[in-house]
């Protein structure tokens, strides 16, 4: 591997699969990885099911000791109170979640989440010992107007304002123009932005923080292109969307290391 950071392959299920389907999918994923002799020391696998699935996933993973981490697709800036429909980080922590997605492009687009909201959600996640997976990325219009890294860097700086250099976070670069389009960024495009994000982390929080923080690429990731991304020195994994619902495909992405020299 290019660096010592443990690669992370994360599957965002979005609003798909009820709790019974989640049980079947997690079982099949675990069995598929086991049959393929997946090396958990070569890449970490995590899934982000809908909130209603998390208790079922927790019970299954704990009972069968599956080497699969999981997290919430979102969390509230509040810990408790009169906030109908919100999900507290405390609830996610009690369900055994390791991660929480923050600032996904769909949350920004459809729910009006701002950089300030994302900053508060990062704080909320860290309060409950969850690892924030902070999503940053530009639209096609942003790309044309500002260039490839300006918007993601601005989002990163805003969301990590006040974060301690001792914190554990993950950054996911997801060019919005590539998500679900079937047209991923090239590995060179993704590496350029991820390198700029790492340089920004170093400026904000120090070289040690930047050196240990994993930066993922997300946007039309599939088994046929994951190896090319993972050859890049500043890409430490992938945030996978639709392909994570196909167990065979996702398991193949998780095992990218078989194809990276």
Automatic annotation (TrEMBL):
Tagged with keyword Cytoplasm: yes
Biochemical pathway: Carbohydrate degradation; glycolysis; D-glyceraldehyde 3-phosphate from glycerone phosphate: step 1/1
Gene Ontology molecular function, alphabetical: triose-phosphate isomerase activity
One GO CC term on file: cytosol
InterPro entries the UniProt entry points to: Aldolase_TIM (IPR013785), TIM_sf (IPR035990), TrioseP_Isoase_bac/euk (IPR022896), Triosephosphate_isomerase (IPR000652), Triosephosphate_isomerase_AS (IPR020861)
An individual GO BP term: glycerol catabolic process
Pfam families per record: TIM
Stored CDD domains: TIM (cd00311)
UniProt KW keywords: Cytoplasm, Gluconeogenesis, Glycolysis, Isomerase
Enzyme Commission numbers on file: 5.3.1.1
Cross-referenced SUPFAM superfamilies: Triosephosphate isomerase (TIM)
Enzyme class, UniProt record, top EC level: isomerase
Name of this chain's protein: triose-phosphate isomerase
